[in-house]
Amino acid sequence: MSMKIEKIELNGFKSFSDKTTFNLDNGITCIVGPNGCGKSNILDAFRWVLGEQSAKTLRGSKMEEVIFNGSSVKKPKGMADVTLHISGLDPSTNGNGDKSGNLITVSRRLYRSGESEYLINRHECRLKDIKDLFLDTGLEVKSYSIIEQGHIDAIMNSRPDGRRFLIEEVAGVIKYKVRKAEAQNKLESSRQNLQRISDVISEIKKQINILNRLAKKAERYKTLSEELKTIELKLNKKEYSALKEKLKAAETGYEKARQEESSLRASLSTSEAGHQKDRLDLVTLEKELNALNDDYHEHERIIADLQKKIAILNTEVENTKDYSTRLSEQASELDEMKTGLNSKIALLNDEKQGLNSQFEDFRLSASEKQEFQSGIEHEISDIETGIEEKRKDIFNITETLGSLNNDLTRLHSIIESMSKKEAGYTRELEDITTTAEEIEAEIEKTDSSILSNNNDLMMINEQKEALSHKISETRDGIDRLRNSITSLKEDMAFETSRLESLREISSDGMAADILENAGEFHVAGIVSDIISVDKRYEKPVEAVLSGKINGVILDSFSDIEPAVRHIRENRLSRTALMVSGSNASARISLPSHQSIIGPATEFVSAEENFMPLVRRLLDNVIIVNDLKAAFELIRDNPGLIFVTPGGDVVDAAFTVLSGKGKDILKKKRELRELEDRINERQKTIEQAENELSNLNRALSGYEQEITALKDKLVMLEKDLSIHKTELLNLHNEKERLYRKKATIRIEMEQTRSEKEGILNNMEEIRRGISETASKKEEMEHSLSSLQNMLSEKKEYYEQYRSDLMEIKLRMTSYREKIDSISKEIETVRESISGAERKKENIEAQIQNNRSLIEQKINAIEELDAKLKEHIALIDTLSIDISGKKEEIEDRAEAVSEKEKEIKSTHEEIESITSKLSSLEVAKTEYRLKMENVFNDIVRRYGVNIDQFDGPEPSEEEIEKIESLSDRIQSIGPVNLETIDEYEGLKERYEFLTAQQEDLTKSIEELEEAIRKINMTTRRRLKDAFTSLNERFSEVFADLFGGGKASLILTDEQNILESGIEIVAQPPGKKLQNISLLSGGEKALTAISLIFAGFLIKPAPICILDEADAPLDESNTVKYAAMVRELSRNIQFIVITHNRATMETADNIYGITMEEPGTSKVISMQLTEK
After folding, report:
1. What is the 8-class DSSP label of residue 477?
2. Which of 603, 676, 963, 1082 could disulfide-link 537, Cβ–Cβ 3.0 to 4.6 Å?
């Protein structure tokens, strides 16, 4: 069954805001519609779902622009989604195919957050999986099955090597190229690893020879050191015991003196307690005296305050009496003012009555004149309305006339612009020719600069090699240490690389997202992280856990709902959620069978809080030796699951789950082991680097020189890179100029045609201007008559308006006078009211002052009584103070006598304390000496001297100490770790040698694979080139109605890298290169070449986007006939504006934009012709 695209679905992609489905039947499907309606977005959707990564290719600046961005009616979408439905994908070509021929779906999604998804049959996959699925099917992003006008131009105008993809597609070698590239990458990596391992082995060989001698030397040193250690331990034990006895005697004397000191201190404490009580009593008496003095001074202060208050109150009484007299005088003055104000109000009322009578006469006269004026106003309004209507008519016709004049002026400007444009094209063609000549000169100049830079680079490299030789000689003294560090670092780098790979492979993106973004719920961990499995049974445990291996463990059941909500809201993949702290499942009884290895839980460990979860997951899982035993046991134990060490699982339904797992548990274990090894290596490296830093100072001079040379070398290489880039840019610019020249000539022809059409429009506009001007003149005459009539009416109106205005001005004057008199009357009345209120306040104040004087006299009498009481109290306090002073003097004399007794006891204690201090110093000295002996033995030999029970050393042994020390000294410095280091290095040498052999074998196998790929590719390319050349010649002759065309390899000896030249001879012309053909001939030639490829290797579908645009009518008919012929075996999607092409269609989809920015689809199925 051949591969077929059943349909494509677009949702939120570019202008297709809603879900849109294009059902693609056999034959030709045409996409038609006006420019800008979104037709080419369908082509972009095909490219995008097939894996296109360039936003520029999709006619955008960034990939986010493929998501529908909203319109005036619809909101922006948050996601773009395109899905292809494919049937008949050959499973022998691509492992993802469906052998039954059922439908396969391929989808791609992009969210505004930047996240993207690739899916095959609604399951997430990688971009590589999609590319592999379509590899060599003819339906790929860069294949010739997707053809647009620019693609045709690229085939014609590209360099020969740019056309090589045509025969590669026809030959079906794309998959071989991919495999070859993968093999070459692996080969390069293996060679680098082999070189690195070879270098390491070479260094290890040197180190092994050195370490062998050092290890023997260390063995001799170790034997002599052990003998010396035994003798010195005996000698130090003797010294240590003597110091111990002296310390014991000092401690006995110290204890006796400390008891005598304690007795004296007890007696002193009693005396000081009594003395302290006497002092406290004395302090109490002094406080009582101070309190009496404070009371005395307080009463003195109160007496002074009372005397001051009495004087103040007497003064206030006199002042209040004076104030009351002044208030009585003010009340009499207010009565006189009130009488004068009442007389003034009577005069103002008489004047106001006369003014009101005159105002009423003027109001009646104004009313009569106002009625007559209103009649004239109505007549004027009717005339003005007629004038306004005429003006509007004149304005409209003037606007029409202006619009016609503007159109005429605009077309004049366009004609002038086109003339200038034609002149500009001519100048631009001349400039292009000049610029191309200048670029040729620049290319020669840049080639010369590149040659000069290469010579300078060669000279500096020679200087660098000479300096490197000097540095190599200087470094001989530190080779061993540096090689050791290098070896450790390489091992660590290899292990670190492995660690990173394991981390990347082991990481679960979805679980990691939940761990990082957990907010409303609490995550305890991931199953694969919390369990530790016996490495022999990692495969069976992983196979049983399956999808739960990366399950997320939550703290409680209440966390499950928010976790599920988080997964749904963020559109995450499915994952297992489980709770750690709940009860474990019930224990199962183990069946009896000789092939049972044991329950899975026996080989799995975890922290105590996770063990209930582990038992729930694995309590019913039994590990057995093989599948045969599993099937025997499952019949009698349907509630259990049996798994083999190889990871084959058998459940109660007799379902066997087999196949290679992801080795997640193995990778997790390796991850932990690698981390431990890397940490140990890092510590060793740091120690070695600290030693090496002291030796490297001597190299600084040479390194500075070589750094300067390297900087110079970098600058030269940078210049060389710039020159090469400039050269490439110059070649590209030259090609661009040639293409631009052809484009300008086409545009010049189009401009001439447009100019003729505009001149015809201008003549029609001039006739319209003449007719409109005549109508305007008639309207202006009618307007003039109405304006004269209006002028007469307005003069008559103005005369009456003037008389009425005079009357209104007089009325206004009288109204203002009346209002002024009314306000003045009101002001006088307010003044009378104010005087009455003020008089009432004065009388109230006089009454209040009388009460106040009476209160203050009463207060003076009360204060005088208190003053007499406080004078009597002061006399009593003077007597109490004298008695208290005599009692304090007697108590102070007794305290002084007690202090003399306490001082004598203190002197005795100080004498004993001095003796204790001397004994403490002696004890400390003995302890320090013992500690020094103890620590010296521990430091040198790691032995606790208290636990050493050896006898005292003999005289012979003491004499032997010096001899042993001399022999050890003669051996020189020794590193005892050299022995272990030698053994470790030897093991590492054997391990690396085995790796070297494996890598060598791997390289040979990869080279053989590449050789076979090249051989197959050459054969296929030769066959494809021959077939394509023949077919191209035939199709060219069919489309052109004769003529000849052929393909020529630019390098026949190297067909893998050879480009393709196209030579064509249309009927009636000489054989020539395609660059000399016309635009239409080029397009038809390119179409001939593409269709020839389809005849040899048909793609499942071909998309043509306005490929017929450059063709004239007769060539379009031939092109359409060829498409119709090819559609027997190939599905065609044709985007076109050409009627002849549309007539070949089996189905037509019309694209419109009823709403701005949103594409809408109209489909139509045509009957067969």
Report:
1. G
2. 603
Name which of 165, 244, 7, 104 is nearest 1021 in CA terms. 165
Instruction: In whole angstroms, give the CA distance from residue 164 to residue 155.
Output: 10
Q: Is residue 691 part of a domain?
A: yes
- Read off φ and ψ for residue 607, nearest 5 degrees: -60, 155
CATH number at residue 548: 3.30.70.1620
Assess contact for 1159 and 1152: CB atoms under 8 A: yes
Rounded Cα gap, residues 37 and 1158, in angstroms: 8
Place of tokens 């990564």: 53
Beta bridge partners of 1152: 1160
Asked if residue 523 is part of any domain, the answer here is: yes
CA 1005 from chain centre, in angstroms, equals 44
User: Residue 892 and residue 281: Cα distance in Å, rounded?
Assistant: 10
How many C-beta atoms surround the C-beta of residue 1007 within 10 A? 14
> Parallel, antiparallel, or unpaired for β 577-579 and 552-554?
parallel
Is residue 346 in some structural domain? Answer: no
Q: How many CB atoms lie within 10 A of CB 265?
A: 14
* Nearest C-alpha neighbor of 1158 from the set 38, 33, 31: 38
- Which secondary-structure segment (H or E) carries 920? helix 700-941
Number of domains in the chain: 1
CA distance 959 to 956: 5
Instruction: Find residue 119's DSSP bridge partners.
Output: 107, 124
Q: Are residues 120 and 133 in contact, defined by beta-carbon separation less than 8 angstroms?
A: yes
DSSP-based three-state secondary structure for 82: strand
Calpha distance 641→103 (Å, rounded): 35
CA distance linking residue 1160 with residue 935, whole number of Å: 93
Cα–Cα distance between 1050 and 309 in angstroms, integer?
A: 128
pLDDT recorded at residue 472 = 67
**E strand spans, 996-1091:** 1044-1049, 1060-1065, 1072-1073
Token digits for 1155?
Answer: 């709403």
Residue at 50 is within a domain: no
What CA–CA distance (Å, rounded) separates 123 from 421? 57
CA–CA dist 711, 716 (Å, integer): 9
The label of the residue with tokens 């999808």 reads 547
- Taking the CA atoms of residue 666, residue 667, residue 668 and residue 671 in that order, the dihedral angle to the nearest 10 degrees is 120
* Token pair recorded at residue 181: 């590239």
Q: How many residues does the chain have?
A: 1169
739: helix, coil or strand? helix
User: Alpha-carbon distance 661 to 680, whole Å?
Assistant: 31
- CA dihedral 881→886→891→894, nearest 10 degrees, is 160
Residue partners of 1010: CB distance under 8 A and separation at least 6:
180, 183, 184, 187
Give me the pLDDT at residue 638, please.
80
Strands (E), 1014-1055: 1044-1049
Q: How far apart are CA 100 and CA 764, in angstroms?
A: 70
How far is it, in rounded angstroms, from Cα 988 to Cα 213? 18
Query: Does residue 120 sit in helix, strand or coil?
Result: strand
Beta bridge partners of residue 86, listed in sequence order? 5, 104
What is the Cα–Cα distance from 144 to 1099, expressed in whole angstroms? 9
| Residue 1053 and residue 1080 in contact, taking contact as beta carbons nearer than 8 Å | no
What per-residue confidence (pLDDT) applies to 96? 43
Q: How far apart are CA 549 and CA 617, in angstroms?
A: 10
For residue 500, the enclosing domain spans 495-696
Could you give the C-alpha distances from 319 to 34, 775, 842, in angstroms and in order?
107, 103, 17
Cα dihedral sign, 1089-1093-1095-1096:
positive
How far is the C-alpha of 1086 from the C-alpha of 153, rounded, in Å? 8
Q: Which residues of the chain have pLDDT under 50?
A: 1, 91-100, 509, 1167-1169
Strand order across the 1072-1073 sheet: 1044-1049, 1060-1065, 1072-1073
Q: Is 1073 helix (H, G, I), strand (E, B) or coil?
A: strand
